[in-house]
Fold this sequence. Notes:
By secondary structure, the chain is α/β, with parallel strands linked by helices. The chain folds into two domains: 6-166, NAD(P)-binding Rossmann-like Domain (Rossmann fold, 3-Layer(aba) Sandwich), CATH 3.40.50.720; 173-289, N-(1-d-carboxylethyl)-l-norvaline Dehydrogenase, domain 2, CATH 1.10.1040.10. It is 53% helix and 14% strand. It is built from twelve helices and nine strands. The chain has helices spanning 16-25, 37-47, 55-59, 72-80, 103-114, 128-134, 145-158, 170-198, 203-211, 218-229, 238-254, 260-277; strands at residues 6-10, 29-33, 50-51, 64-67, 94-97, 119-122, 125-126, 137-142, 159-166. The strands form two sheets. A six-stranded parallel sheet has the order 3-2-1-4-5-6, sandwiched between helices. A three-stranded mixed sheet has the order 7-8-9. The longest helix has 29 residues, at 170-198. The protein is globular.
Amino acid sequence: MESRERVAFLGLGIMGWPMAANLARAGFDLNVWTRDSAKGERFASEHAATAAATPAEAASGAGTAISMVPDSPEVEAVLLGADGAAAGLEQGDLCIDMSTIAPTATRAIAQRLAERGVALLDAPVTGSRPKAEDGTLTIMVGGERNAFERATPLFEAMGELVVHFGPQGHGEMAKLVNNLLAAVNAAALGEGLTLAQAAGVDTGRLLEVVAAGAGASTMLDLKARPMLDGDFEALFKLEHMLKDVRHCLAEARALGLELPLAGVAEGLYADAAENGHGEHDFAAVVTAMK
């Protein structure tokens, strides 16, 4: 892939904006689209990109279209809707969906794109906003090897660890497993901190001890202090974590599996969302313990 190939980037949210910015800094020419046209114009002004009115317009003249939107319906709309990117792409072009959606949905979308001669890679990411900003995301990719190799320069501009999992949908499944572990871990952390506070334990000393022992984790490092401080500025929205846990449960049922811990986590995140924390960081799951 030539470094000056034009790329369409669809979705400039918490993650999409810094990811697209890193592509621009790496030398890729960008057409951008997002639901908020003023936001798209602002990005274009700041990063020498071209703002488009529709995904199809963004994809026109671009060999690759990248989508970064909340869930399966949005991916289907921006890629395959009436003004979707596929309408602006040509046979042999590539779509890369970096959203986190159900593996079954990504396979269905890939089949419909293939009928148009367009390949799809599912390439969800992990690392939240800070790693999106500094270009050190972990990227999990499913799809054909030749498409993966073609897209590698793009991935390297946005991520530090890029892993090809093979078949279509396996990138999404890897991401869902990762997020399930994070969701359960964060819920357990919130429960432990709630217990410590109720008992009057010095939480500062507790964090020091837990960090040195078997209870240490990335969630401890990232979410303990926000949970204790009630600082739920969104780095990864709770409603998105709830969505991912629900996707895990649905995929497990389709495979004949029951995930009891995922079921408990789903209830806790649902409670927090119902109490007004859906737009907050998923550290707000701690509020479901009180």
